[in-house]
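HUMAN: Would you supply a protein with fold tokens?

ASSISTANT:
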Amino acid sequence: MSWLLAHPFEVSELVGQHLAIVGTALAAALAIALPLGYWAARRPAATGPIYGIFGAIYTIPSLALLALLVPILGLGFWTAVVALAAYAQMILIRNTAAAFQGIDPAQVEAAAGLGMTRAQQLWRVELPLALPVIVGGVRIATVALIAIASVAAWINAGGLGMLFFDGIHRNDVQKIVAGCIASAALAVIADALLRGIERIVRS
């Protein structure tokens, strides 16, 4: 704890790097997972293959996945982003599919009866109803990615994992503890913020 308090600027810089990795990976993951989750909800035959592919990726240990990506993408930020976005898919796709599957068909039929197009039904009826469950999935994925992103320091992507690896290399327990505290605090804050957003969209 003393190291953490004694090096606020260094920690702040690493937190910024960590947030950049997680934020970019989450945005990329959502761009893929939302349409795939909606497709899985509306095409049950696609559910098995989608869940199978991304479930298999999710079971790969993070260090192993990064090691597989480094020869293709090299070291650094974008390799970490690709790995994290791949890990987030399973959580986001499942929650998105569950969100749309949980919508009362009568509400969609009522929207169609009012003359709404398919796109209008999606954006004005289905998506608002599904949003609370989707946000719940984003919250779970965000906390998971904050934890996994610490490993990204192994490939020189930066972030709070630098404290872990540097602390281990130098046998500096205080640095390791500082990394643990900072990562845990970041996860708790992100979880609290997204829980608040989740409550707002449910109300």
